[in-house]
Each structure stands twice: as structure tokens, then as C-alpha cells.
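Researcher: I'm preparing a figure for a lab meeting and need a structural model of a single chain. I don't have an experimental structure, so a prediction will have to do for now. The sequence is pasted below. Please return the structure as C-alpha cells so I can convert it later.
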Amino acid sequence: MARTLGFGEDDLRALAGARSFERGLGYLDAVTGLEVGDGSITAVVHGTDVYEVELTLGGSTGISGWCDCPYGQEGNFCKHCVAVGLTVLRQAEAIPRQRAAARARAVGLAEWLEGLSREELVALVREQIAGDRELRRRLELRAAAAHSDLGTVRERVLALVDPRPFARYGYVEYADAPGYARQVGEAADALRALTSGGQAARAVGLAEEAIRALGEAYGEIDDSDGVVGQAVAAVAEAHLEACGVAHPDPERLAEWLAGHLLGDGNDATDLDPLDYADALGPSGLARLRHLATEARRRSPRGWAERYLMERLVKAEGDVDALVALYAGDLAPSGATHLCIAEELDAAGRVDEALAWAERGLRDTASEAHVDGRLVDYVCDRYGRAGRMAEAVAVHRDRFQVERSLAAYQQLRAAARAADCWEAERGAALAALREDARRERGGWYRGPVLIDALLDDGDLDAAWSEAAERADDRQWQQLADLSREARPADALAVYLRLVEPLKEPTGERVYERMARLLLDARACHRALGSEDEFTAYLAALRAELKRRRKLMTILDRHGL
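Model: Understood. Here is the structure written out cell by cell.
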């Protein structure tokens, strides 16, 4: 029956990943307020906070999800989405009927609204705005724009972008940022309404005022989730749209763009001057180029000055001018060398491109951190030309300087392609063993040697090296990978990792403890010693019985 919904547990696991899926299983009892619509399902999940989840049915995966938890707002299908999806699957028989009912309600609402008279619709809207301040504010702005009441529109737009009503002690905190972002979004809607209402020129000026105010305020906002930045981008888009309709004076627009891009308030927006190319025209672009040149002369190493000049030179298609611009300020990471190589490559000048990339490797040979894309670029070109030994040499040199797991993995891939990994591996592991010997007792994380052995799948060697060297992360990874072959060793690791979790509190700690206990139980089962685990767990629960949240989480996981 679940497949009639278009998705199943395997789809949820694929979207979330194994870890989030397993964690979602623990939240099935925390799902409330499930509401089924025609193409979507909403619910509330009670976790560290109360989170709203919306699942959309359909698409290539059968389902997609959104959650307002921090992880979900980054675009991830989080454990809360998993919990709601599993709840839906457990109610699969009722869902089609509920979706049909939702469709019927939508049709009924549309028919009812279409049947109302003008007077009845006006009365309905008045009733709604009397109890909905946000709706009233939006409609007031629409009305002012429609009546060309530009003074009211300006006053309201600037009030909407003013963060002071949300600021505590002069700062908009994380919890208040979404509310402020909604207001900024309303300001963007009002600017679009001005443009569509024949007042595009006024919208240009008002948008510039709003963007300036937002730039001044943005540094005092905790926008960790980026919601305010998205709303500010909508205001910037409204400005661009208004410029496309109003056709403002090109040179004045160029001066505004230069002032904004080179000023202190540019952090809030991500304007690309080339988006304004049509509105600027030849004269505006020429004026902007002149202003950029002057700014670059005054501040040759300024980031904003460089960005503006790069964008303008790139638009002109003069590759040599762009190379000269880049070459004037080469980054120690090799990133600028790579930019030059890519521009020359795109222009068909492949030999020059490789020469610049190789120069980048030489210039950064002693740097601990080099842009990995530069190394990849050179080695990719070597690989295409059959110069495999040279590609290995590049990765070997980087590994000798960097000594990271990533550098080890890249050396391994190159050496395997050149069929010389066994020889390279011995030398690389010897270098890592020496590093581990020198660092013993003085590092904040386990040595790269153990990460490399784990990544190679050489678990016996990893166990040999782990004693007195591995950190907790490496111990757990080693236990996870060895659980089937060495359940007793893995069990000892899991039980040791549980001990330090008895002191701290909080849901994250309790969830980690529960996962370790589940792993320990699996080891006991493999060893045929489940009675020992039962006794251990009973003693643990008795010891920590006052921690009610922990007891609830253990119950949820069947512990």
C-alpha cells in the first residue's frame, strides 16, 4: 500500500542517509499535527525544539521534504522529515482518502469564493485583515501602490526594513531573524507592486534606499540560516527588475552600483554588475569601468575593487587584460593561478594554461595549504597526456607538505592509476608513522596514520596502531568497521565510549549514548552473551534513572 504514495522506506533512507534515517526512527512518537493536503503533508515534530515539517509528494524521488530545523534549512532531508515520512507510511491506507478529501475541500473553497458577491468578498477580506496584522500590512501596501500614494509606500517600505523592532540590545538574534526576514520580503513585494503599477522609476529610488538601510543593518543580525540574506536578495532583484522597466540614467545607475559595490554596506547583497548590463548600456558600462579603474588605482589590493574590475574586464572578453589583472595579485594558495589557467583554457590557449598551473604549483610548493583544484587541474592534464608518473610526483610532493587524509587519498588514486601504489604506500605510511611517533601524547585528534589505514581497509594494521594513539572518533570508526569480524574488540570500544557520556546532559549526548548501546547490544548478540548486556543495561538505567529525558530516549530505541 505504501508504494501507492509514490515512496517507501528505501526512498526515505536514500534521501536522508543511513544516520539521519536511524535517528528519525527515534522520533516517531514525537510527530503531531499531521495534516494531509493534495500534494503535500505537514506536521510538527518535537525535538530539541518544536519543528515544522512539510513533505511534498511526487517528483523523481517520489518525495521531497523541508524542515525548519537548522540542518533542514540547509536543504537536507533531516531526521524530522524521516519521522514524518515514516508516520505517513504507517498510515498509508488512510492517506489516499485524506488527499481526496483535501482536493474536495480546495474545490469547494474555490467554488464558494467564486459564488460570493463583491460586497460579500469585501466583507470577508475585512474580516480576515481584522485578525491578521501581516495580511493587513501587505494589503495596505498594495493599496498605497495602486493609488500612487508614494509617501505612504516609502514610509512603509523603510519601516519594514528597519531591524530595530526586532533588535534586543541593538542586535537581531537568531530566533528573531525569520520574523525580520518576512518583513524584508514584504518590502520586496511592495517594490514589485510599484513597478507593475507603472511607478518603476519610484521603485528604483526606493529600492536603493532600502538596500542602503539593509547594508547598514546586516552586520548586527545573526543570519546563521541565511533567511535574511534571501529576503535582501529579493529586494535587490526588485531593484534590477525596476531598472529594466524604468531605464534610469545609465551614468547615474553606474555611479550608484560603484558606490554600493565598493562601499561598506555591500555585505547584505550579492549584486553582480553584469546583471545590469542592459540597463547600463554602453555609456553606463563605460562610466562604471572608469569608476572601477579609479578605485583600483586608489586601492590596488582591495577585494571589492578587484571583484568589480574582474567582472567588467571579463565581460569585455579581453583574456590578456584579465590575466594581467589576476597576475597582479596572486594568492598564496594558488587559486589565482588556477583562475588564469581556466581563462586561458577557455580561450583555447591550453599550453599557456598548463604553464600557469604548473607555475602555481612551483610558487606554492612550500605552502601547507594549497587549493586542491589547482593540483587536480594539473594532474588531470597530465593524465590526459599519459604523463602518469608526473601526476604521481605532484601528489607525492603535496603529501609530503600537507600530510592529511585527503592528500593521502589523492596520492593513492594517482599511484593506482600509474600502477605503483604498493611502493608509494610503503613510503607514505612510513612518513605517517614517524609523524604519529613524534606527536604521541601531544595532539588534539588522532594521527592521520590511523585514518589512512582505516581508509585503506587495513583494519588489522589500524588495530595495531590504535593503542595509545587513536582518538574517540577513530576508535568508533574502527569498531564500526570491525564489528562483524572482531565483535569482542568492538564491544570493548563501545562500552568505553559510553563511560564519559554519563556526566554531560542534553539530548545530543543521550542520542549518542543510545546509538553506542545499540552497537554494544549487536556485539553481545554476535558473541551470544545477550544476558550480560541485559544486566549491564539494567545497571546503567538504575545509575542514571533520574535523567528522565535519557530514559525516554532509551525507551524509544528499545533499550
